[in-house]
Amino acid sequence: MFPEDIEQTAAAIVAAASRRGWTVATAESCTGGLVAGALTAIAGSSAVVDRGFVTYSNAAKAEMLGVPTETIEAHGAVSEPVARAMAAGARVTADVDLAVSITGIAGPGGGSAEKPVGLVHFGCAGPDGVVHEVHRFGDIGRERVRLESVRVALGLLLAACEAE
């Protein structure tokens, strides 16, 4: 279902998290559950994946993940503070060891000069706090922005699982 590299990374996450006895949750906006889908495509993922939150609207981010509405209003949904809050909120709400978040503009519309199509913010919350990454994929098409976002999110989870 997913490209081979995504399946391989997802399998590595499931194996690494299983070894550590860790559980994982996802908090996804522009990817609409694709990260959770990639993880749950792997046999044995039920020992690792707790849940996935698809929080496409601002209201869902606030209600399901506890992202303060003030943060969304001040910075916009596609921002570092919101990505960090989504990841932290998913980790706390699901009571898991790791949570990854994705919020971005996949296109083809919805972009602006300040926040163009292809801008995606990521958060990964774990035992050592929350890390953030931002990627500017450009206007490469909705499907490619979403798939590249899945790759980045899985990479963040794998790095967290493999950190000492």
TrEMBL record:
Pfam families: CinA. InterPro entries: CinA-like_C, CinA_C. This is CinA family protein. It comes from Brevundimonas staleyi. NCBIfam families: PncC_domain. Residues 8-159 form the CinA C-terminal domain. Transmembrane segments: none annotated.
